[in-house]
Amino acid sequence: MILEMRNVSKYFGSRKVLSNVSLTVSAGEVLGFLGPNGAGKTTAIKIMLGLLKANEGEIYINSYSVKNNFEKALEKVGGIIESPDMYNYLSGYENLLLCAKMHGLGRERVLEVAEQVKLLGRLNDKVKKYSLGMRQRLGVAQALINKPNLLVLDEPTNGLDPVGIKELRDMLRVLAKNGTAIFVSSHLLAEMELMCDTLCIIEKGVVITQKSLSDLISERDEDNRLHYILSVSDNDKAASLLKEHNLEVSVADNNLLFLATKENAAEMVKMLVQNDISLFSMTFEHKSLETVFLEATNGSKGQIA
């Protein structure tokens, strides 16, 4: 386990903004952190990185306690919290070189991360001339400079155009494939659906759920059955065979619909093929991430953020 938060609570005066928050992120996992405005996301991230102190609970990064062994815990962590900090009067190269030197690294590492974030062509320009999207790319480069095994990103797509968002997503997937644990908070639900393996939803300082993306959006009933949709060569024959196995079957838009567990559905497909019925496609119904989010947060009056 790369990151583990255990029952973290935080008060600002008498107001409790986090209540027993627990979550985990493993090596190679991309976890999306979702919640309405004011849910406590940024507070949780700041506590995670030692920028705020928790009133209760523990945080471990690479098995080191953030509270008791701060330097070791944060040694292999990179992050962007809100707007990336940088010196406007220096070039992008000079900003990155300052970060690199703090970690005992030099020019070679600066050029590596600049290439990763597609910033090489503007690296020698002053940061004050950068667009918002370019500043965000530079912030991601800063977060990557120390070759972290945990990358924490708060709204990393701010200011990026669609091409930049896709490039960031692809880069994060490559990093995860190479073992980096990635914790990302974003309000772009469609992008989170494409980017993340796991989602953690928080509302009013309380973690509502942490599940894999596939489990969250799959339409399952209480018996863990899914709504399957089949396109076959003979609807009538296929429906009769499925009904013989006590399945509830209906036809919609020239497709067969039935409820079954994953294992049972595989058996049914095998049976249909053995009875000379061609299977053209098989899918199952799933919710959009937006629907899951709104259901989990009871349609919070706050904006999605």
Describe this protein's structure.
This protein is of the alpha/beta class. It contains 11 helices and 14 strands. Helices cover 35% and strands 28% of the residues. α4 crosses α5 (132-144). It is elongated, with a radius of gyration of 24 Å. The protein starts with a strand and ends in a 9-residue tail after the last helix. The mean pLDDT is 89.
Write the layout of secondary structure elements.
Layout lengths: L2 E10 L2 E11 L4 E5 L6 H8 L7 E6 L2 E2 L4 H5 L2 E4 L11 H11 L4 H10 L15 H13 L5 E5 L7 H16 L3 E5 L3 H7 L2 E6 L2 E7 H5 L8 E7 L2 H10 L4 E4 L2 E6 L1 H13 L4 E6 L4 H8 L9
Parallel strand pairs: 3-8, 3-9, 6-7, 7-8
Antiparallel strand pairs: 1-2, 1-4, 4-5, 9-10, 11-13, 11-14, 12-13
Helix pairs in contact: 3-4, 4-5
